[in-house]
Amino acid sequence: MRLLIDGYNVIFASTRRAFNMDNPERARTQLISLLSAYQSISHDDITVAFDGRAEGRMFPQTQKAHGITIVFSESDSDADTVIKRLLAREPNPKAAAVVSSDNSLQTFAKRFKAERIDSEEFLRDLDRKLKAAHARRADDDPIEKYEGLSSRDVDYWMKYFGFDTEEKK
Question: Whole-prediction pTM value?
Answer without folding.
Answer: 0.76
